[in-house]
Amino acid sequence: MDMLSLQLPGITDEPYYQPVGEEVGLFEAAAARRLPVLLKGPTGCGKTRFVEYMAWKLKRPLVTVACHDDLTTADLLGRYLIVGNETVWMDGPLTAAVRAGAICYLDEIVEARKDTTVVIHPLADSRRVLTVDKRGELLPAPPDFMLVISYNPGYQSILKEIKPSTRQRFVAMEFDYPAPDLEARIVAAEGGVDLDLAKKLVKLGELTRNLKGQGLDEGASTRLLVHAAQIVSAGRTPGEAANAAIARALTDDPDMTETLDDLVRAVF
Amino acid sequence: MSEPSSRKLFEHELEERLDRVLFASPSHRSITRLATGLEPLSRAQQDLVLHWAGVTAQTCAEIGHLIVSSAPKALELLDADGFEAWVLAALDSYDRQGLRPAMESLRKLEAFATERSGAPFARLAEVEGRLTRFVQGLSGRPLAVRCVGSGNAAWTDTDAIFLPELLAAMPDADGNRRLYKATAAHLWAQTRYGTFAADIDATIAPLPDRQQALEWLALLEAVRLDARIAAELPGLAREMAELRGPWPAALVPVLPRLQSPGATVHDSLALLPEFVAAGGVPPWLTLAGTLDPTAARRVRGERIGKETKVLRNALAALKGAGGRKQGGEAALDVAPGDDGALEVRIDGEVVALPPEAQAAAQSLVQDLGELPPEVLSPAGPGGWLPTDKEGPGPDLVGDRAADWRYDEWDYHRSAYRKGWCHVYEMAVAPGDPDYVAEIGNRHRALISQIRRRFEAVRGEDRVLGRQPEGEEIDLDAQVDAHIDRRSGIEPSPRLFCRRIRNERSMAAMFMVDMSGSTKGWVNDAERESLIMLCEAIEALGDDYAIYGFSGWTRTRCDIYRIKAFGDRYDEAVRRRIAGIEAKDYTRMGVAIRHLTKLLAERPVRHKLLVTLSDGRPDDFGDEYRGTYGIEDTRQALQEARRQGVRSYCVTIDRHGADYLKRMYGPAAYTVLDEVGKLPTKIADIYRRLTAN
């Protein structure tokens, strides 16, 4: 029987990452002791970038899976495909990561169906094995394999919660938007703008975060601020950039848009 | 209308019509005079006036009367749209505040007309929402926007900012709207940058003229705060500077001191005696507002006290929790973080503060500049109660305020009546404890049949064959494809099976008519039906709730809780089902709005609102009966739909079909012509509705 396998290239260029606390050291410690890691924090605060950075730093390939509510076990483990008159096994991302000793990052794990998340349980405790039942294969994880999952606790819906049996297997790290000065440095570095403009964008970000729960589900994330900065560095005015990349991205509600416009004008 | 609609109506015809639309008018004798007034108008205008007179007279005859009598003048000043807006504004204030303000609003015809024609002023009412959100964004803590009494300047007590009802200082409306924003921002800056951190009253006490001193101080603070705003919000500062123009000459010499980054309110206070001694009249600056240090200091003090308490209690609770776990007194270490957020460590471990406490800490930083140590020491014995805030305790219906107020749709006006219906929610008084058991015995066979059927529906998985993608290979499809290929036909790419898990993400709300007309058989049938339903849905495991509704006019819309979402189907619920009884009337729109609100909060994918009723919407008095009630109910159902709630109606009314189609749409109701069928049918209806 043939087998198709995913190519897992390593990360060659250092991704930009600005540490905000002890997260790099903690992650390295977890990696050294082969413990899985859970990252929690609001959208766009740097979780994914952090994992990329750590994959580069630990010199391991990275497999990222964006979880969604139709994600089945087969989507993670793999499936038989039909090529000509043959069935061919195709590893799913999780199986591929285990075989290659990569870091497997399941982004927004709560979006996945509950029965799907259970396949990671034997990987996430001392057994460190993956059961690929369709092939009758019990795949022990090599030392370099590491499981990382993330979720955003801010959605506060009872359907979007991680089961205790899942979460209690992980070393958890909490992420949040960085403190203003640090965030400004990140926006300046990532967006290619000067620190002064970056500070203004961060100020705008703070003002929108004040409106969280008052008409906005979430304030502007660091990612949105970086986007705005990038639009500016590509030649648009800060007002235009903030409108397009921040205000319009945050809401469709006309009243809220008006308020965000006011805030944009106040800052620039 | 029988006569051609283009012809103008003559006085006697007008009189006849007015007589009809203003039927309840106390001023019958003046109808002739009114008709005389309307005669010179064009037919279109006459129709317009008669239409709105009719509409408003149904709400209040006085208003209808006044509209007709002011109509000739109104139509000189306003076009048809303007006329309509003028009438609607009056109806709005009638709904909100009653007759007198409505009549006043109608009499302010000229002001209304000037405003309609693009008058140069701006009203607080039109910018209020925008300003509220704006200052919320700026400050990160609640700062209400309120209206100051007429003739007074803007000011703030640090919990709310008070702005004039109308601003006309700028030459155009847009300028005046921006002036509102600038003034609001300036008053926010007073609360944010510590204008009231000093004891202003004590400082100005020795000065001869308190009023004059406060006016100077407001100006000096305007300079200082302007510089603070410019540092953080340059765009806003630019806009404010444009509106204010250059600083008055008297202030120029002190600009450098007040604009330096470290300036505080103490600098303004230090400069104050000099200005007061010079004796000039303080120049007027609209956006500087006035200061009321006494009120502001009191409010600020209360808030600091309250928030200190919240914070200290939260810290005490954390410490207590830590202490129990460690089996001893925990070491608590509190340090303000860079961005004002508090970092709390218990025995070196970072723990999260509850959001209320974090917000209190942020607010204290704004008021005090930093968190002083006494605020950060945990409170003594006494637990942390998140509810240890304000909020009225439980009370009895009758003299208590409504639990909720809802808008109601008035089809005459094609507009909502604001906050029109007063909703009270209460539990049904428990009924006969043996009732449910008795029904259970009577329908034993039916219930066990229902349970079996429903258990079969629960969580069944299906495998879909011949899918383009899926977990497994569909062997049948694969064989077919093989045959196709061998015989030279292009094989189908649909070779996989896909497992569909039947995840029932469903919440159902049952809304039970408890109006007087259900007395007797219908009520019995409703109760029996609910028992069948509960049995069925318990077997399914869906999330469900049961509420009854009844009422007596718009000021007493009662919602009876029988089973809330999350309640177990236990003895208490059974007794409440037994306790359902016929009460008063059927004002349906408001009940739908309230129950939709409860339903919309459920975190499930499918939401279903099922109404059990015995007839059309109705309420005491003529108003809600007939088209009005049907249209309001229809509107409420459409609102529900927009919130993702599907509605269905089961009704016992042989004449029901006509209005039900209008309200629920052609396929969303069942009419039972016989009461006795309800209990046996209801479970099947539910199963059909929720099948996928």
Keywords:
heterodimer; A: 268 residues; alpha/beta; Rossmann fold; 2 domains; five-stranded parallel beta sheet; three-stranded mixed beta sheet; 10 strands; elongated; B: 692 residues; 5 domains; 25 helices; 19 strands; 49% helix; globular
Give the arrangement of secondary structure elements.
The complex is a heterodimer of chains A (268) and B (692).
Chain A: E1 2-4, H1 23-32, E2 37-40, H2 47-57, E3 62-66, H3 73-77, E4 78-83, E5 86-91, H4 93-100, E6 103-107, H5 114-117, E7 129-132, E8 137-140, E9 146-151, H6 164-167, E10 171-174, H7 180-191, H8 195-210, H9 222-233, H10 238-250, H11 254-267
Parallel strand pairs in A: 1-5, 2-9, 2-10, 3-6, 6-9
Antiparallel strand pairs in A: 4-5, 7-8
Chain B: H1 11-21, H2 31-38, H3 43-59, H4 61-77, H5 80-97, H6 99-107, H7 109-116, E1 122-123, H8 124-139, E2 144-147, E3 155-156, E4 160-163, E5 166-167, H9 173-192, H10 200-204, H11 210-232, H12 234-244, H13 255-259, H14 265-278, H15 293-326, E6 332-336, E7 342-346, E8 349-351, H16 355-368, E9 404-410, E10 415-427, H17 435-442, H18 444-457, E11 462-467, E12 472-473, H19 475-486, E13 496-500, E14 506-513, H20 521-540, E15 543-551, E16 557-563, H21 571-578, H22 588-600, E17 606-613, H23 627-642, E18 645-651, H24 657-664, E19 669-671, H25 678-690
Helix pairs in contact in B: 1-2, 1-3, 2-4, 3-4, 3-5, 4-5, 4-6, 5-6, 8-9, 9-12, 11-12, 11-14, 15-16, 18-20, 20-25, 22-23, 23-24
